[in-house]
Amino acid sequence: MPTLPDLRVAPPRSWDEFEDIVCSAAKNRWSNPDFTRHGRQGQRQDGVDIYGSDHEGRFVGIQCKNTWAGITIKMIKDEVDKAENFQPRLACLYVATTAETDKAVQRSVREISTQRKKEGAFEVVILYWNDIWADLTRDESRLFQHYPTLRPRDSSGKRELSHDQKLFQEFQSALSFDPTIRFLRDQDFGQAFFRRSIEPLSEFSYTWDQPEKEFIDPDLQAQLAALKEAAHTLNDHFAEKTVMVGDGRRISVYSDHLRSAGPKPDWVREEGRVLNKEALLFVQIYEEFIRLCKRELEA
Q1: What is the pTM of this model?
Q2: Per residue in 65-75, pLDDT tens?
């Protein structure tokens, strides 16, 4: 039975999808999750679509050419010339193509790279689709992000869950809508409330700030990062603006001492309004994150 690296899978037709695949493959090749796509469509790229640091810490760039029909030396030289303007200066430019391997082009690229190295310029390497595929299959979780139908099935016939799918399930268990998010949405924080009602928020804020709880999909991870930032802010403000009242099971912006001193001060009312506003903002980001995960992971 062929292994995943041995499969002959056709490259994507979409240039955008191809760049995403190459970015994932680069992360696998150099064991560096920080490889990033450069800019967006319509912006000047200076010959670089993806950049990051290789296993030696050198700054490298990747130019993606979705060229099914093949790639020429002229096309490569044109991209090399553009990349001379990229900052910071590259140590190596990789030209990634969907084309089939061409030994003559490989030889010419090696000659160009050797001469450039003698001149103190960055090196040049060409990566064909089979090279990119081999790199992509080094990490099955990243591979299945792009090719979910390749995911093996379990004994029941269901496909195994990806890293991101498992993490989403863990997230839903850690911070479910009921009762925590519903409470944050509906509670008036100008009034006293049970401290235990916000404990899941505090737990999420302190335990989800670690690499093991990061999504591979960049869009999901960006939304999770925004959610964690909002959670930190809201959690910190609960700690700063509330005190224990009564028997200690409840907390409030309105302390027992102030209650006994007379009418509720305006600044206390304002503290409650601030918490209400921040809680609703957190709920909004939470709901957007849930919807995004469902679209991306449950399709």
Answers
A1: 0.56
A2: 998 788 999 99
